[in-house]
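sorry for the late reply, my laptop died twice this morning and i had to redo everyting from scratch. anyway the thing you sent over, i finally got around to it. pasting the sequence first so we're on the same page, its 166 residues, then the predicted structure underneath. double check i copied it right bc i was rushing
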Amino acid sequence: MSIISNGNIGAVYQPDYFETSRVLAADSALTTSATAEPAFAFNVGKNERVVYRFTLFYDQDNAGDDLQYTIKSTDSDGNAVAPAFYSEHLNAIVPGGTAFLAVTTTPNTEDTLTTTSTGQGMAVIQGVILGNASSATTVNLLLAKEADTAGATTVQEGSFLELRRF
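ok and here's the structure:
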């Protein structure tokens, strides 16, 4: 077990593994409107640190229907909130077998996994959020497809979220 200093409650003992996970119970067909997936929402308290990892399995029927995602942090009124610290790392294999890597420190922005191919893809989005001092927030993963074609882009059952608070 690790000993971690938490600004809210002092030193705490923490297991050395992700402690919470949520699994997508059924396939989720995407539209061009970004929609929050309830299975992937979590709260961040004032000054709380959260390490998170989304693992998404998806299927893309048409080139151009690229998977888009936004990790959005909002207050209880639904307004976007900038965390005190934010870091996000994306590792993905998009349809066609191309590796896609990206790092951002800007929350509440849309990212697109661009490919000219169709088929199966996998994305691992992991990062750290430090809640700001003034308000607790809810973090949602918003998902969409880039183009509005007849084909489907589907996030598949078994995609999951893991997180660790400290």
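The mean pLDDT is 87.
thats about all i looked at so far, will dig more tmrw
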